[in-house]
Amino acid sequence: MNAVKTKSAKKKRLISNIAAHTFLTILATIWVFPIFWIILTSFRKEPGSYVTSFFPKNFTFDNYINLFTNTHILNFPRMFMNTLIIAFFSCIISIFFVLSVAYVMSRLRFKLRKPLMNVAMILGLFPGFMSMIAVYYILKTLGLSEGAMIRVALVLVYSSGSGLGFFVAKGFFDTIPRALDEAAYIDGATKWQVFTKITIPLSKPIIVYTAITAFLAPWLDFIFAKVIVRANSQYYTVALGLWKMLEKEYIDVWYTSFAAGAVCVSIPIAILFVFIQKFYADGMSGAVKG
Amino acid sequence: MKNIFPKLRPCRHSGTISALKYGDNSTRLSAVVMGLKHLLNKQIAKGLLFLGFEVGYLVFMITKGFHLISELVTLGDQVQGEVYNEAKSIYEYTSGDSSLTILLFGIATIGVTVLFIRLWQVNIISAYKIQCKVAKDLHLNTFKEDIQELFDKRLHILLLFAPLTGILIFTILPLIFMISMAFTNYSKIDSKLILFDWVGLKNFIDILNFNSSLGQTFWSVAAWTIVWAVLATALNYILGMLLAIIINRKDTHGKSFWRFWFILSIAIPQFVSLLIMKTMLQPSGAVNTLLLGSGLIDSPLPFLTNPTWARATVIIINLWVGIPFTMIQVTGILQNIPHELYESAKVDGANSFVIFTKITLPYMLFVTTPYLITQFTGNINNFNVIYLLTGGAPTPVGSTAGKTDLLVTWLYKLTIDQQYYNLGAVIGILTFVILSIVSLITYRSSGSYKNEEGFM
Known about the structure:
- The complex is a heterodimer of chains A (290) and B (456).
- With 290 residues, chain A is mostly helical.
- Chain A folds into two domains: 2-63; 73-284, MetI-like (MetI-like fold).
- Helix content of chain A is 72%, strand content 0%.
- Chain A has 13 helices and no strands.
- Chain A has helices at residues 2-42, 62-69, 76-107, 113-123, 132-141, 149-159, 167-174, 178-186, 191-199, 204-220, 223-229, 238-245, 248-284.
- In chain A, helix 1 packs across helix 13, helix 3 (76-107) runs parallel beside helix 6 (149-159) and helix 3 crosses helix 7 (167-174).
- Chain A is flat and about 75 Å long.
- The mean pLDDT of chain A is 86.
- With 456 residues, chain B is mainly α.
- Chains A and B meet through helix 1, helix 3, helix 4, helix 5 and helix 6 of A and helix 5, helix 7, helix 9, helix 10 and helix 11 of B.
């Protein structure tokens, strides 16, 4: 009796196991399919966006070479450098802004603390680019809408509002035991010293998280870039350039190079993203483990 | 200085009014000559700073500011003119007013004024404090000590100064600017792009009116936006959770192997993956080629060209984008569900479906309501998926919005492509209203708000 029961239970388990694994395999295939396809396309010899067969007939490396050497219409290496410079500076500013605001909201007590946090929540409910046109005119008034200043304008666009995104870092700071701060105060430390000598050294996961998130923003955004850069193609960012390659006048020639560009951009971003996940998880599990 | 107000009550008060009420002569005079009290009490640097700001503000207001604010009333009426210059025998242009510049500078001036009033209050309160300290014979901070205080007691001012300036100039100022545009006729219609006027609530009435064609477009776009946001959020949530549960089953082998494939799809930049999907789903794209080749269909499927298909497609593609996010978010929380709950349910003979709907889902809903609200907000404002996949298309002839357009993508088209700035601003405000109402209701009726004690 007992043996029969365990046997049927085993069988049941086996069936559900097979079902689960088949299901996961199908899903994983669906999820990887577009990625697989774009990698194939990036090595495809036949040009154009539409194909008659799923697998390329001939493979080539020319799309990558074309992307980096054919620079007189769409200059991919320059787009890459533009984005890198913008990402670097907006990352530095954002780290400073986010950590400052998060520390203030987490540790310091003053009259406007609650109101400021509520305002930050409310501002988050407005569609971000509702004010895009206004931002453009403000940048124009400040003389940042022409020539090389466009880069400065983009840095400002990506970093100036970053102070609003303090919630994750604040949550992290909240987990650092206050006893550490108090011990330092007893030893005569100022709040500035506590911030720079205790909180920041303990916050590596959240600093890395903030840094990568801020660094990635210029690579991923093309909405603001499109409005601010407009037709100045020498200041295109990567996202804008790739988007351009799929416009009607370029797509037939550039589609396979677009695929190559997409692969080139996605690999470093994907690696950074996996890093974020790790640091995000570390950040969420608290600062001081015990 | 002799005090002509003898009933001086010492210093149990704060605030501007009481500072003026109980302040002595020089404190009160500080309201006119800012920094006076500080200068009289040897806080030279601080006093000069206050005085400098006052002089700077007054000079600015007299030379420009008052004019800028007064122009806000009409938003300018000088039309750019053509004057025939007989000497050169050409038409010359006289510069006209630009309502947009007037509006921007006017709002900025009001902003500066508000900040100045705040500084003026700080000045008076500070003057009153000096008076109190002198009366009690307490130590007055030197400038150096004031600076040191910025690193200690007033660290929040030091740390918040730069971030707040950034937010003020690049988030709040543009927002007020855009909100005020909703009350003007700034639009390509009637070529009001250079000179425009205040029109009160007219734009709101036009858009909310069921009978006008604009109103009908708005209501249909708004309805689809809500349907989209509810479906996208709910499906992502439930399916993402199921995926996480299946991966986390005790008997699933290679948990991190499976997770990796799904995380990979998030790691690819959205604009890349969505643009790829777009080309793949075209009538002659990869998916149709594959299906035609395998003989499953006879003619290409209209993924993005037929309205109903397009709506279904964007929801499904959004699942591709969203499910891995949910999976990551809920994995940790799922493992926190107390095991005893499952054990006792099994003892009572519940099957997996009952366990999911009676235990897992309620528990998860309780814990993740804030996450759901963010997801919902994100989906209402989900610009990328719609704009990159369909661009709002298919668009009925003569309409400004397509069948898959959300309020945000419609807003984008109205402002960037069509230059109906006023209508775009109205839609932005209405989106905000919808979002705040929905978030507030969900948050208030959620378990985590009603009962902060915890689940069970």
